[in-house]
Specification:
By secondary structure, the protein is an alpha+beta fold. Among the domains are: 135 residues, no CATH class; 38 residues. The protein contains two helices and 22 strands. The strands form nine sheets. Strands 9, 10, 13, 17 and 20 form a five-stranded antiparallel sheet that branches. A three-stranded antiparallel sheet has the order 14-15-16, with no helix packed on it. α1 runs antiparallel to α2. The longest helix has 34 residues. The radius of gyration is 27 Å and the shape is elongated. The protein starts with a helix and ends with a helix.
Amino acid sequence: MVAQQHNLDTIANNLANVNTTAFKEQRAQFQDLVYQTFRASGANSGGGTQTPQPAQVGLGSRFSASSTNFSVGTIEPSGDPLHMAISGDGFFQITLPDGTAAYTRDGSFALDANGQVVTADGYLLEPNIVIPEGARAISISANGNITAILPGQNDPSELGDIQIAVFPNPAGLTRMGQNLYRAGGGSGDPVDTTPGESGAGTLNQFFLEGANVQVVEEMVRMIVAQRAYEINSKAIQTADDMLSILNNLKR
């Protein structure tokens, strides 16, 4: 029942984030617990014969991991020149206030008071890109090159290049909230990559990536989790009734 509660919590979090930019669906994974072995397979059963199968009773299941589905969500138009969606693998690199690095698929960037490209929470995009005041016709190519027409000029000027990070095992990233991930552990070290090269995805300006949560699928999984919880509860009640009958045999 505890395992199914974790399952339901995971499903509820997926449904709560169905409109969260670039949210990645999670699934609860389970493992069976230890077994009581009453008779081993191949045990001597007399007359030179052996038992072909073991006699074991399992002790339930446990919540073992939260796997993340990193498939690309729906690419939706936004109309903002600083909004970007990654088509394919990779993460935007973010610098947190303490100087450490974080990673995100959320490309809903904006400008701060200094013209720096930042996230919705004000965290700097890495490498740091500065858009001068009065710049117009901001363009971001599929490979991350940023250009704009500066005041007093007629030709576009190059402002920098966006790099994205690719991980050997993105499923090993740790979620931090605020659409951010932290590297380490099983994720491997990030590899700074030019968009569109070495297996990295390309950038789509004026678009945002939607959540990859499938609502109908989550609702079905929620019903299955609820039924599993109920049947586990029924098993406990049935076992209690059987023990009550056993105790009453003495009377």
